[in-house]
Amino acid sequence: MNKNEGIQIPFMDDFKKGSLKSAIEALLFASGEPLSLQELVNHTEEKSKLIEIIIREMMEEYENSNRGIKIICIKGSYQLVTKSQNADYIQKLLKKNKRQSLSQASIESLAIVAYKQPITRIDIDEIRGVKSESAIQRLMERELIKEIGRLEVPGRPILYGTTEEFLRQFELKDLQQLPSLDLFGQDEVQESEIEEN
Predict the structure, then answer these.
(1) What local confidence, expressed as pLDDT, does residue 111 receive?
(2) Residue extent(s) of CATH 1.10.10.10 domains in the chain
(3) Out of 28-32, 78-82, 179-183, which region has the weakest mean confidence (pLDDT)?
(4) Which pTM does this prediction carry?
(5) CA atoms within 13 A on the CB side of 82
(6) Is the distance from CB of 169 to CB of 101 less than 8 angstroms?
(7) Is the pLDDT of residue 59 over 70?
(8) Whole-angstrom Cα distance, residue 3 to residue 122?
(9) 104-180 domain in CATH 1.10.10.10?
């Protein structure tokens, strides 16, 4: 069932609705950064529920059409982004090499930060069993993790956490959308049961 079914925008003709969609699209485009619902409400001078309904409708329209862009939601803020199937064209335009995939060490470190944040490098090293300094540096260069503070102990080690770029890259609205670690444990239990039989 469509989320917008049954929700009607009161007393809004197609022209006004189209104008509002146009304004929201222009704001998201001009900003280049995510805009919160409240920022969109302030700039359009419309009610938040109305803006929320319009944005949901726009997200569906973008997703279901052959457009090169879409609207994503990150931590309650909205942003215009290019669709992933157009990455090669964008990279040619920007004259960048194809994104190098993350090394195994970087993937492990990123997963640990994502699930255990805020976390220190020493804690990451202990979980992985090897040093993670270069992996952490690469993740910071790619803006997938960042320094989010310092631990209040002698030496005050840096605490790391994920960034909005991390959410964007993995198409997550927020960290609650990360798969549950319980799922991974169940898979291992099932595999060991299969091996025993």
Answers:
(1) 93
(2) 14-83, 104-180
(3) 179-183
(4) 0.57
(5) 9
(6) no
(7) yes
(8) 45
(9) yes
Written as one letter, the residue type at 167 is L
Mean pLDDT, the chain, rounded, equals: 84
CATH class of 14-83: mainly alpha
Beta-strand relationship, 158-162 and 145-150: antiparallel
The confidence score (pLDDT) of residue 88 equals 83
Contact yes or no for 129/102 (Cβ under 8 A): no
Rounded CA separation 89/85 (Å): 9
25 vs 17: CA distance, rounded Å: 12
Residue 80 near residue 73 (C-beta atoms within 8 A)? no
Could you tell me the pLDDT band of residue 99, with boundaries at 50, 70 and 90? Answer: low
DSSP track, 89-118: HHHHHTT-PPPPPPPHHHHHHHHHHHHH-S
pLDDT in tens, 175-189: 888 988 776 665 454
Query: Which of the four pLDDT bands, split at 50, 70 and 90, describes residue 22?
Result: very high
Alpha-carbon distance of 79 to 39, in angstroms, equals 12
If you write DSSP's letter for every residue of 111-156 in order, what string do you get? HHHHHH-SEEHHHHHHHHTS--HHHHHHHHHTTSEEEEEE-SSTT-
Query: How many CB atoms sit inside 10 A of residue 62's CB?
Result: 18
